[in-house]
Design a protein that fits this description.
The complex is a heterotrimer of chains A (about 210), B (about 90) and C (about 500). Chain A is of the alpha+beta class. Chain A has helices spanning about 5, 15-45, and strands at about 60-65, 75, 85-90, 105-110, 120, 140, 150, 155-160, 170-175, 180-185. Chain A has 2 domains: about 5-45; about 60-205, Rieske Iron-sulfur Protein, CATH 2.102.10.10. Chain A has a 4-stranded antiparallel beta sheet with strand order 5-6-7-8, with no helix packed on it. In chain A, strands 1-10-9 form a 3-stranded antiparallel beta sheet, with no helix packed on it. In chain A, a hairpin with a 5-residue loop joins strand 7 and strand 8 (about 155-160). Chain A is elongated, with a radius of gyration of 30 Å. Chain A starts with a helix and ends in a 28-residue tail after the last strand. Chain B has about 90 residues and is mainly alpha-helical. Chain B has one domain (about 5-85). Chain B has helices at about 5-25, 30-60, 65-85. Helix content of chain C is about 70%, strand content about 0%. Chain C has 18 helices and 2 strands. Classes of the chains: A alpha+beta (about 210), B mainly alpha (about 90), C mainly alpha (about 500). The interface between B and C is medium-sized, with 20 and 20 residues.
Chain lengths: ~210, ~90, ~500
Amino acid sequence: MSSKADTESKEDNSPNRRNFLKVAVTFSALLVLAGIGAITKAVTSTPPSESSESVTFPRVKVASLTDLEANRPIIFNYPLDNEPNVLVKLGQKADGGVGPEGDIVAFSALCQHLGCVYAFQPTGTSPQCNSAYTAESSVGYCCCHGSVFDFLHGGTVQAGPSPRPVPQVILDVDTSGEIYAVGMGPPTIFGHNTGSNDTSSDLQGGNPVSTT
Amino acid sequence: MNRNDLLVTVLVILQLVSTNYLWGLDAASSVSQARFAIFLAIDLLSFAMIAYIYRKAEWREQTYRIWLLLGSFGLVLLLVSSLIFT
Amino acid sequence: MRKEDEIIARLVAWFDSRLGLSHPMLRPVPEYAVNPFYWLGALTVVAFVIQGVTGMLMMLYYVPSPIQAFQSTQYIFQQVYYGRFLESVHLYTAYAMIMLAFMHMMRGYFVSVHKKPREMMWIVGMVMGFVTLGFGFTGYLLPWTVVSKSATDVGIGMIDALPAQISWLLSFLVVGAGGDATELLRFYDLHVVVLPAVLLVLLTLKMYMLECHGISEPATGVVSQEKRRLIPIFPDVSLYLLELAAVFGSAMLLISVIFPLNLPPQYSPQLAAQFTPQPDWYFLWIYQILKISIFEGPGLSVALSLVTLLFILLFLLPFIDRSKKRRLIDRPIFVTLGLIFVAELIVLAYWGLITPGQIIPFEQAALVIGGTALIIAFVSFGAYWVLFSRIKRQTSSGPQAPTKFAALFSFGALATGGAFAIGNTMNTTVNIIVQGLDWWKALLLVSSIIMLAFVILASALLIYRIELPNGSLSRRIRFLEKMIHESK
């Protein structure tokens, strides 16, 4: 494409034309900005709905780093004051683990099968209710029907009739070594719209523990 | 008025119509997002063409017809696609 | 003048004088710089502005806590007016920003902007590049999906595997005392406040240096007087920038409409266990290097140190490439190295994409990485030898030194390449005989035979070139002998 052949005819460069173009360009730019303004207005005028109300889990202190020994579980209630959870320092890095070695985890102590309270079983030990079973790694063992939850991998089901993993408590460690429970991961705790992944249900049907 | 000035006027009017349309879109409908993008793009491309014409005028140079043609073609394409989009 | 024209003229003059629009402040730009290649950096900044606008709109609804991150992101996607559109524009413009920054760097490299007096501009620019990658890394985590959290966990794991001092510093900055909530909040803070502030400060610094040093000379070294004509920043050059920005913006809008985003599922450790983590495309080349078999286990630190070393070398380029030569013709080695770098990045990234989670055997990696480098080197040096030596003889500017270098390198490269190709052909043949044929071995055999053929042809070409009218073979050999003797 040769530049000469494609150009427009001689253009008039009078001040009038230049002013006209200056005004046109400015106006054009303002219109573009107005267009961007339209999306700002639209976005900010989204009406709130139920799901936009913040789902705030209480922030509750569970223990201090110094209180913990490997494989000695601590039972605590969260997020409602009648629902047990188990917190334990596993001694090896686990999914979702906190603390300097990433080995401190906590899970809801209610089995996802029928809601029995299960217990933590350190590696190599057998539960009192079933001496035939020996834990191959750090697990939660439910005496009711034999569900086994893998504490190293987010509470996934290793064996037994539980249809889904047990929910993990979201922990946070602050700079002074205090461990806090700050939320629940999916699925919901047994009895709260069981089987759903919407953890806001965990806060309904009881009294939340107060924030400490 | 020479040809480029006519084009500039047409483009400004096109921008006015587009911007007006943008403000009038029903934000709740899902197809609005695509329409918004198309008309804001029309807005932006019109501005680019007007700026190009002005810049070449300032430099006392001649505009290259190919860019103006490509730009106009793009605008027409966008306008047509906004109608097809349901 | 007609009355309306006079009114417009007076209006324009009023704004002009009050806003100082015609006041010459920034140095004017030569006409050869009104060309998109000179504006890749500016477009990166335009992309950054788009990110700011879309980001600020999304900040109205996003909540950076592990429980609410996904929920609020989903809310933006589903409920917020134009939410999905905003997310799509934000992601695609992020990708564009990283790609533009990379193109800006490579263009600068090939045009020799890192040489005197712009060494500091290169270094500041490299820091800005890291900040841009940091934007990508921190932003990726925020939706808290299976994809994003898994990839970020891998990334944090890699940071921990860096040499102790660096990893301690980065860990502390990025992850804090530990736990998902702290990490997410820090990433959010970095993404939304710290990195933008740092980028803006660096940008100001770079713009100031640009004002001092001006636009660099083009790489061809030949610029006509007409093209040197200076053009004022306002309104002319600013308008050019706005034109480019408007077209770029439209492209981003349209891409977001044609390919609207879908949100992956929420992160949970159980879901993540079934999923092979993969970093975002701009980190795929690093990921691919780390997947090479010799870097498994304790070798991870070695791999990361190598990658860090590469970045440091890039950083310190102005002190490595010290020659005063700026034209492409005069820089065969560095141009070739640059081409190899780009080619390797593309090859490694694509390879990483098609082999998620798979360990790469060392022989394959050596073949692919080495092969790419050798092929590019042959093509590049071949081009220099054939094309540019002819031009240089005509223009006779500059000493014979590059030709000497090219000659030495060609001989060296051919010898190495030949040995490699012969060795690999023999090796692959033996492998096939012993272990049996499969698709991969067949491909290896064919490619090593092709490489061997290449080496033979290149040697023939080299000998042919030497035999050209300008010199006979024996004269060239005597010349080489003299060269080797002189360099002793």
